[in-house]
Recover the amino acids of this structure.
């Protein structure tokens, strides 16, 4: 009986309506917050958001949510519990976000790396990872001694494909003999599979490993094997102090803070934001000391040129893998083409997965 | 001191009582774990076990969701349990689930966008056939070459996953969305949509099929000769042979039934709650169903309860994360405890503990 009463008291405490100016923000994650990569990046931003607004926001998370029915259910329950804004932090939630958003027109949905926007309460946001990949490609092309770069890829979606192409083009530009080996895992977070992939790539002669998957497994394997690697989405240097050359670090916090502020101000509306170095949404982890100073300066200059809009990583002439022309000399890829990219550029020898 | 004694016959009382005791112990141990994490244990347990059903805020939504989430688990587990009773171990229901979904979705996509009442029934047949076909591989390999059905059916899961990825990227890809894997959304193709039969109840054709399968399995196991053969083959293989049970035929039947039911579950999921063929479509239902089958004591009625209970911990676990910031891993530990306690308690089904005085010489 005592238990029942205390439960009733607690439930009353839980059910106390939030103060009118407390904004409730929910996050759903495809991986665990402890992946030290992609999901960790979003959760870092959530914590900054919480720190920025203090008691004026309440944040909730559900991690390891599969795409499909599970995601739909979690977001519906969030909406039912009075959440004002939901951040869905993975591309595959697209159909689910759209289904739930249709049922809850008063909830603001923010879909990371999304591609479907059927309701005016859905904002899409994404980072120009291909800008960071250009820098990684440049460094990898100069650092490799075997001229073989291993690439662990997750899903063949435009964000990943454009990253491979960008890395390849910029490695090739500084090292014409460079060769990319690509392994697809069809998963965002599978440490065992990622470790296997890294080992296979190293056996095939790769001495630089790049990844577009979320765990630290590949960096650890590279450290043990004495080769080089780049982290993903977060600084992964502690998992491979020698191997880890740098990483594209995602910084979603300023964007998250601005969106919550807009909601509080009543100015929030559906947008489609694609942000890169210029907006500070991506930045590079500190260069490893083993990168020669000269190369560090080149990389810094490349970042500066991209930030300033003086240079676009996809500037023609670029041909598709089959040799047909894609961009003419001096032509710059438009965002539409990059957001739907489904082919490799010329020179990549792997077959495109389909 | 405590002495262990093997019972002459497994205790009927403990067989039934253990699952309930396991749930109670899981609640206690779980509460202790949540308390150690600095969360209020009473609130945590309430969120996981009671709120999905009784909460005013969530109940009306999560009660139907409970049926939606549990139906595929029950449908698959009922089929598996028949085989398990006969010592025929189909561990690859996940693969049969995937193939059922692919066959069913394949029929739908082949007809798209034509209307027609016959499309959905065809998908149902195709789904069952897809799962059946995939289960026939280990079945025939076992009967012809005496291979181990555990290994073959399990390894075929990985093959099915690769076929699923290939389909989502290639043949079944939605041509209207450039650059992204995944098929058309079947929920938007009326003739193929496994919609709710009654609004806001969560009852779709998969739930109905699960119910029918449970009744069918119950009648078969208790009233039909085949059920008798299954049990006999499991308990006394030699006696079964004398009774005229053909082992090869039994392997085909058991794997066939469980494969077809798993295929059906996949088909109802892809055309309903899941909505489309995606690379990550298979969310482990085929493996979780093995737990459900054992938690339900391989008994059709027990499986219904076990399926609902596991579904409850999933939905309640999400609420626990959302409302109380419980870590996702703590929820998984909690679900693991349930199976652990059940298996540990099963010990007393077969053994009795006796207090004895002094040292035995």
């Amino acid at each position: 009986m005592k238990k029942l009463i205390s439960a009733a008291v607690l439930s009353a405490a839980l059910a106390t309506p939030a103060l009118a100016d407390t904004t409730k923000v929910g996050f759903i994650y495809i991986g665990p917050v402890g992946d030290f990569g992609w999901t960790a990046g979003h959760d870092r931003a959530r914590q900054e958001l919480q720190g920025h607004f203090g008691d004026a926001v309440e944040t909730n998370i559900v991690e390891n949510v599969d795409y499909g029915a599970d995601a739909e259910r979690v977001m519906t329950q969030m909406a039912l519990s009075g959440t004002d804004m939901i951040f869905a932090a993975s591309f595959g939630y697209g159909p689910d976000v759209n289904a739930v958003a249709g049922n809850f027109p008063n909830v603001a949905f923010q879909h990371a790396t999304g591609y479907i926007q059927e309701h005016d309460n859905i904002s899409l946001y994404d980072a120009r990872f291909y800008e960071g990949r250009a820098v990684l490609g440049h460094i990898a092309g100069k650092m490799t001694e075997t001229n073989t770069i291993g690439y662990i890829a997750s899903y063949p979606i435009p964000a990943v494909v454009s990253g491979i192409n960008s890395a390849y083009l910029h490695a090739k530009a500084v090292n014409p003999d460079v060769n990319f080996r690509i392994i697809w895992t069809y998963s965002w977070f599978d440490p065992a599979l990622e470790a296997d992939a890294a080992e296979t790539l190293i056996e095939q002669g790769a001495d630089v490993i790049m990844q577009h998957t979320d765990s630290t497994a590949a960096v650890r394997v590279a450290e043990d094997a004495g080769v080089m690697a780049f982290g993903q989405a977060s600084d992964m240097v502690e998992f491979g102090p020698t191997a880890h050359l740098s990483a594209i670090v995602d910084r979603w916090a300023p964007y998250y803070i601005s969106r919550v502020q807009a909601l509080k101000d009543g100015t929030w509306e559906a947008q489609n934001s694609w942000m890169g170095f210029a907006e500070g949404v991506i930045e590079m982890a500190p260069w490893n000391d083993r990168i020669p100073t000269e190369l560090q300066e080149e990389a810094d200059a490349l970042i500066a040129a991209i930030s300033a809009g003086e240079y676009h990583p996809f500037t023609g002439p670029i041909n598709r893998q089959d040799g047909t022309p894609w961009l003419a000399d001096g032509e710059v890829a438009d965002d539409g083409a990059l957001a739907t990219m489904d082919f490799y550029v010329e020179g990549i020898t792997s077959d495109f997965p389909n | 001191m405590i002495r262990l004694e093997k019972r002459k016959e497994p205790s009927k009382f403990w067989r039934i009582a253990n699952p309930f005791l396991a749930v109670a112990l899981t609640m206690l141990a779980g509460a202790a774990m949540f308390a150690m994490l600095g969360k209020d244990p009473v609130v945590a347990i309430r969120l996981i076990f009671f709120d999905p059903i009784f909460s005013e805020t969530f109940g009306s939504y999560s009660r139907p969701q409970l049926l939606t989430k549990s139906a595929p688990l029950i449908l698959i587990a009922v089929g598996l349990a028949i085989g398990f009773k006969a010592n025929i171990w189909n561990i690859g229901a996940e693969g049969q689930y995937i193939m059922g979904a692919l066959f069913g979705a394949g029929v739908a996509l082949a007809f798209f966008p034509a209307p027609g009442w016959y499309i959905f029934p065809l998908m149902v047949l195709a789904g069952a056939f897809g799962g059946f076909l995939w289960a026939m591989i280990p079945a025939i390999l076992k009967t012809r070459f005496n291979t181990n059905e555990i290994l073959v059916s399990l390894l075929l899961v990985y093959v099915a996953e690769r076929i699923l990825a290939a389909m989502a990227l290639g043949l079944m890809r939605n041509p209207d969305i450039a650059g992204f894997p995944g098929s058309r959304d079947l929920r938007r193709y009326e003739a193929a949509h496994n919609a709710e039969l009654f609004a806001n109840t969560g009852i779709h054709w998969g739930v109905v099929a699960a119910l029918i399968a449970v009744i069918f399995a119950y009648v078969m196991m208790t009233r039909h000769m085949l059920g008798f053969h299954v049990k006999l083959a499991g308990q006394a293989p030699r006696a079964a042979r004398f009774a005229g049970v053909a082992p090869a035929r039994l392997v085909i039947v058991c794997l066939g039934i469980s494969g077809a039911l798993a295929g059906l579950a996949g088909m109802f999921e892809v055309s309903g709650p899941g909505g489309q063929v995606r690379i990550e479509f298979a969310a482990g239902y085929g493996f979780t169903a093995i737990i459900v089958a054992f938690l339900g004591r391989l008994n059709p009625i027990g499986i219904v309860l076990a399926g609902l209970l596991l579904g409850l911990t999933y939905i309640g676990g999400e609420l626990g994360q959302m409302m109380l910031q419980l870590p996702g891993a703590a929820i998984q530990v909690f679900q693991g405890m349930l199976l652990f306690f059940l298996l540990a308690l099963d010990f007393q089904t077969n053994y009795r503990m006796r207090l004895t005085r002094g040292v035995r010489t």
About this structure: Chain B touches chain A at residues 40, 42-43, 46, 57-58, 61-62, 65, 68-69, 165, 169-170, 173, 177-182, 185, 187, 269, 273-276, 278-281, 283, 315, 318-319, 321-323, 325, 327-329 (CB under 8 Å). Chain B is about 70% helix and 5% strand.
